[in-house]
């Protein structure tokens, strides 16, 4: 089934494309690790298979955005339990706030999703348990006008992948392959699991 490097790289691309489109995919939520040894779950919003680039949505005020900035290393981890495939991906992260792609992502979001960016920034301290949202925004879908101030907090994280580690669990022997970007192509090798 997975006999060649081309098969495996195609499997990784197909899995990421499917994961972005399907909320039920086990890879729809991925663990995103930053250079400060922190990691968090994020929703995979898009995968550009030509550029091997992942897109996530986030709040520009969150600590990870300060760490990632315009080109810091990012690790991405996911496990597809049914397929028994682990993906360990690495690349350069980039936070964007005012490019056409950010505007497009914002326009494609609904007002429930936009509402998340209305409140206090992630990590802001509170004296009591809080959603961080202003009281008036709790439990409602705000109007276009009401969510307008949230736009300035909305950002995208792009991760341009430059190394892929594919691990397939199997009773008759696990298999693991690694790929490193080499210009416009990928160098591939088998490694012990
Ligand atoms: C299932 C799930 C999905 C999440 N999706 C996102 C996401 O798409 N973007 C995001 O910024 N945070 C997301 N979060 C919250 C992050 O895990 C994290 O707590 C938050 O972004 C805090 O920012 P920091 O990692 O910069 O401290 C998600 C959390 C969970 C549990």
Task: Please tell me about this protein's structure.
With 193 residues, the protein is an alpha+beta fold. It has one domain (5-191): Electron Transport, Fmn-binding Protein, Chain A (Pnp Oxidase, Chain A), CATH 2.30.110. It contains 5 helices and 8 strands, in the order αβββαββαααβββ. It has helices at residues 5-21, 63-68, 100-108, 111-115, 144-147; strands spanning 29-34, 39-48, 53-59, 73-80, 85-96, 154-168, 175-182, 185-191. The longest helix has 17 residues, at 5-21. Bound molecules: flavin mononucleotide. Flavin mononucleotide is lined by residues 29, 40-43, 56-59, 62-64, 122-123.
Overall residue-averaged pLDDT value: 96
Span of the ends, CA to CA: 18 Å
* Uncertain regions spanning at least 5 consecutive residues: none
Give helix and strand order, one letter per element, not per position.
Answer: HEEEHEEHHHEEE
**Helicity level, as a percent range?**
10-25%
Structural category: alpha+beta
Quick structural overview:
The protein contains 5 helices and 8 strands. By secondary structure, the chain is of the alpha+beta class.
